[in-house]
Every structure is written in structure tokens, then in C-alpha cells.
Amino acid sequence: DNKSRIVVATCFSCSTIKKSLLHVCTAGISFALIVRFASESRITNRQTKSGSTCSCDKTMRFLDSLRRLDAYPKIDNEFSIRTVSGAALTLISTIVIVTLVIGEINAYLSPNVSEELFVDTTRGHKLKINLDFTIPRISCDYVSLDAQDSTGEQHLHIEHNIYKRRLDLQGNQIEEPKKEDIQASTKRISSTEAPATTTLKPACGSCYGAAKNVSQCCNTCQEVIDAYRERKWNPNVEDFEQCKNSKDGSMEGKAFSEGCHIYGTMEVNRVEGRFHIAPGKSFSINHIHVHDVQPYSSSRFNTTHRINTLSFGEQFGFGTTRPLDGLMVEAAEGAMMFQYYIKIVPTMFVPLKGPTLYTNQFSVTKHQKSVSAMSGETGMPGIFVNYELSPLMVKFTEKRNSLGHFATNVCAIIGGIFTVAGIIDSLLFTSIHVIRRKIELGKSS
């Protein structure tokens, strides 16, 4: 029994020792693994920390290098000094900047107009003439407007597009303007011609001393005028009884007691030409343009005039020059001939929106002379306008301003004024500081 107990105890102890050794080995292995993991983790942490430290150092060095490029160094408020002169300069600079920027905005919003000159290739068939003349010393009944171009085409009595308004000698309107029809030329019956049919022989009217013989009669106003013309006398129709109740007499009686306002538009061939406003009735004899001023002599007509408006083509308020508008011309004597030589320059305007517009600009040269019998000059009294078309055309084109140009100008305004104001402020501050130091040194000494 004792032996068996010893054997059993020995076996039990051996098994216990084996279990203990097994636990010890397991714990040792676990501890070794923990230690190894901890050491590896420590090494990894050290490597990570060293790597992050290196990257941080590189970033700081890059930022330091970049910081050296700062052209606008900052000063703490503790070290800044505010002065009254600086405040005044700031206000002035702000006002100037705002004013200039507003002007730049207006310039940017306003379209830019470019000019171009090229040969005129347009094919217009008619030229529109806009005119407005005032003749204060000649009646409308004795004023004619005629036009002629270089092709030889004559337009007599251009009144279908022209209005005439009667005026008194003070320039006041007598009646409403009238648009007159084209007058047909009529053949005058000579005093020696007999009428086609006579039903009653009228009484013999007086010729007021102009009769060639005692049997000559002047029963109409025209017969009296013809008799005076044959005698080369100057008739005074106001003294003739035959002229007081006749149409011709009434017209002749008020020839110099009224004025005339002529205005309107007319279209002529788009070639070189001329038009004139002259006293008398106009007609053509053998392709010669003639004005009949009978019973008066040409020296009695005062061609004083005012050009209210004279233009060519459509008017739209841009790119037009009208140098004759508002021109008042006084005739120093009767039978004055005023000539205007006009050079017309066709003009095209291309707006940002809308159709292309066509008009004309012109330059003018004025000449005047006396055509009375005593002067020896040829011509007839009146206002003569000769125009000629230029082969070149002026083109005006509206364009929008560039946004980059606007931004550049605004930056230049702000930066320039800010820089100049800073220089002025530095000079003022330094000068005041130096003066104060000298004053303090003078007081201490």
C-alpha cells in the first residue's frame, strides 16, 4: 500500500510539474510575443514621428521662403500712427477714385464710334434736299425756286414739295403756308395783237404818257407795263388805275411790301447740280433759263436772306455738319447775287441696333457780287446753291467697349491714386516730423 501511494504521489507530482511547465512555457511565449509586438510598435511610432517631423520641416521651410516674397508687409496696430493729413488725403483720394470710376463706367456703357473712309459704291438714284429760307424783302408771288442738274434736266417751279408762307416786313406770319402747284408757262399777248373775238369795244385807257401815238390805248395793267417797257421807263404800278383792281397789279403792288418763308424738301438726281431762289417768274427759252422780273428792274430786289436750315439726306442727329444753319446775310445794295459752292460728302452710320442710316455732310464756300447795270457783272439777283458729290464716303460704326480695357482702366485709377497719395502722405509726415524736431531742439537750446 505504501509503495502504491508513493508511486501514485510520484505520478501525480510529475503530472503537476508537466502542467506547470506547460503553463510557464505558454506564458513565456505570450510574454515574448507581447514584448516583440511592443518593440515593433515602438519602432514604427518612432519612424512615423520622424517622417512627420521631416514633412513638417519641409512645409515650414517652403512657407518661410514664400513669406519672403510678400510685397505688402503688415504692421501691427500698436506701431501704426494715424494723422490728420493722412485722413484728409484718404478722403480726397476716395472722392477722386469714385469720380473717375463713375466716369469710366459711363465711358464703358457708351458705345465707341470708329471712323472709316472708303470709295462710295452706293447706288442712290435721288438726293434729298432739306431747305428752309427766309427772304424778308420780296413777296412770295415774286420768288421762284428752281433746280437743275448736270445732266441738263431742269425742274421749273419746284413747289410741289415746297411750302411758301407770306410774311410782313417785321417777319410775322400773314397767312398759313401754302403748297403751290407747278405753274404752266403762258404766252403773253402783245399790245399790238388783236383779241380773237370782240363783243364790245372798250373805252381807251390811258398809257400815262408812254403811248407812241394818240390812238394807242392801255386798257389793262399789262398793256401799261408793256408801254413803259418800250419807252425803257420804270413803271410804278401803284399809280396805274388799271393795276389797282387786276391780279397782276395787286401782285406787283405788294412785291416789296411783304416777305416770304420758303421751306420743305425736294428730291433731285444724285449728280452734280444747282438750285436757286430768285425773284421773278422762271421759264426756259431755247434751253436758256430766264427769270422775268418785269415791270421792275433787277436792282430794286433786295436779296437779303436767312438760311434757317440746309441739309442733304436723312437727318438723325449724328455725323452731320450743317455750317449754313442760322446764317443771316444782309444785301448791301440791290441786285446782289449770292453763290454757295457746296461739297457733299456721303456718310453712313452703322448703329449697334437697327438698320444702317445714310446721310450727307458738306463743306461750303460763299461768294457774292453785285449784278446791277452799273457794276458791269453778269448774272441775276438771288441765292444760288451749287453742289457737288464727293467720290469718297465716311462710315461711322458703333462698337462696344472691351471689358478687359474697362477693368485695366479701373485698376490703373485705383492703384495710381493710392500710390500717389501714399507718396504725398509720406512726404508730409516726414516734413512735419522734421519740423517738430527742429522746433523742439530750438526750444531746448
Describe this structure in words.
Helix content is 35%, strand content 27%. It has helices spanning 2-67, 84-109, 221-230, 241-244, 247-253, 403-444; strands spanning 112-119, 126-135, 143-149, 154-155, 162-167, 178-179, 259-269, 273-279, 281-285, 288-292, 305-312, 327-329, 336-350, 357-370, 382-389, 392-399. α2 (84-109) runs antiparallel to α6 (403-444). The longest helix has 66 residues, at 2-67. The strands form 3 sheets. Strands 1, 3, 4, 8, 13, 14, 15 and 16 form an 8-stranded mixed β-sheet that branches. Strands 6-5-7-2-11-12 form a 6-stranded antiparallel β-sheet, with no helix packed on it. It has a two-stranded antiparallel sheet with strand order 9-10. β13 and β14 form a beta hairpin. It has 6 helices and 16 strands. By secondary structure, it is of the alpha+beta class. It folds into 3 domains: 83-111 and 400-444; 125-168 and 259-398; 175-181 and 204-257, no CATH class. The N and C termini lie far apart (129 Å). Its main location: endoplasmic reticulum. This is Endoplasmic reticulum-Golgi intermediate compartment protein 3. One of its GO terms (cellular component) is Golgi membrane.
